[in-house]
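Subject: sequence -> structure tokens, single chain

Hey, anyone have a minute? Need the predicted structure for the following. Not urgent.
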Amino acid sequence: MRRFGLPVVLVLGLALGPLVFGEAQQRTKTPRIAFLAGGSRSGDALLLETFWRRMKELGYIEGQNISAEYRFAEGALERLPVLANELVRLNVDAIVAPGSGAAAAKKATNRIPIVLTYGDPIAQGLAASLAHPGGNVTGLSGFIAELGGKQLGLLKEAFPRLSRVAVISWASFAPNVEWLKDMKIAAEKLGVTLQLLELRGADDVEPALSAIKAERAHGLITLRNPLSATHRARIVEFAAMGRLPAIYPDREFVGAGGLMSYGIDVADLWGRAAVYVDISKHAGRVNDESILVRRDCCVTLQCASVVTNEGIPMYAPEGRT
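Reply:
Had a minute. Here:
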């Protein structure tokens, strides 16, 4: 993978407040944490790997001095409350979750600490404020409302002749709604028509890809959500086979062969979340620190053949040259 001279923006994100982890609990007991997310374990594999790497640095090794429960909704967000209640009954020491999972966990318990790995804690009702969250939620805030417009702008900058762009989003995922609002404003300014494909479940993925092909879109934007993460490989394969210029929400898509990505470095956030799960034998509480949230854009050499020297897509709809 090679990074080119495309924009890299640093945004300061605020860590939520400190949280006490069951100070009354016996410290001789092996701590048990849980993961709760709307996607799939395979789709979040890199995030989990990053988390456990950081936990190892903090002195925790799964299966030795800490254990874990995993609950993934596989794209069916309606299952999250049931899964959250399962974890509460197991009486885990902490629940690690992105926005949708954290929201379900908060409704299920006001006692077990919840560590947010990514999301908009204010809009999702998880915290009163970033400085003073209150309740049992802490962690990281990495939501950037203007992300959708920036993704479209970068794709248009790389491929100036694009005039019709397909957008894959998830209708039930609140952050996607906000990103689409910003993207629509940017599209009007850039003279781009958006083909909106709002998924409602896993069965909608293939019909959405067929619609992109039928409408002969000039480019593709995939917004980050549990469904797109779960079906990452299929979406990337589709764009590559159709030589369709595409921009994705994170570097995991690039690692799967995607052309470029621009978005929050969610893997980095998951790694930083480990600090909040560090059940200190001395202080009994997590650290309170500010963090840097990265947005980055990268291009993979194996996909660079879709770009000509003039930065024009090799794939062109009928009637275009």
